[in-house]
Automatic annotation (TrEMBL):
Keyword terms of this UniProt record: 4Fe-4S, Iron, Iron-sulfur, Metal-binding
Pfam family, one: Fer4_7
Entry keyword annotation includes Iron: yes
InterPro entries: 4Fe4S_Fe-S-bd, 4Fe4S_Fe_S_CS, PSI_iron-sulfur_center, YfhL-like
Organism in which the protein naturally occurs: Uliginosibacterium aquaticum
Signal peptide (UniProt feature, chain positions): none
Gene3D superfamilies hit by this protein: 3.30.70.20
SUPFAM superfamilies xref list: 4Fe-4S ferredoxins
Domain 4Fe-4S ferredoxin-type, chain residue ranges per copy: 1-29, 31-64
Protein name: YfhL family 4Fe-4S dicluster ferredoxin
């Protein structure tokens, strides 16, 4: 499952540099996660790093983008082969 950033985001800028896939960027109002690049840190870390550093706990799983660990690993492999 990709992650999303909710409207509770305070634009603190701690999540963006933690993303190993470069999936997080500043949107018009709050930070956003590109679901095509989000692997929940599978292939890099045991847990999503953005969730670990977020001070307001505003990065849940995206219920519209359900992916299992195998799919996340396949996405990681595809992203790192480029």
């Amino acid at each position: 499952m990709a992650l999303i950033i909710t409207d509770d985001c305070i634009n603190c800028d701690v999540c963006e540099p933690e993303c190993p896939n470069g999936a997080i960027s500043q949107g018009e109002e709050i930070y956003e996660i590109n679901p095509d690049k989000c692997t929940e840190c599978v292939g890099h870390y045991d847990e999503p790093q953005c969730q670990q550093v977020c001070p307001v706990d505003c990065i849940p799983h995206d219920p519209d983008r359900v992916e299992n660990p195998d799919q996340l690993m396949a996405k990681f492999i595809k992203l790192t082969q480029k």
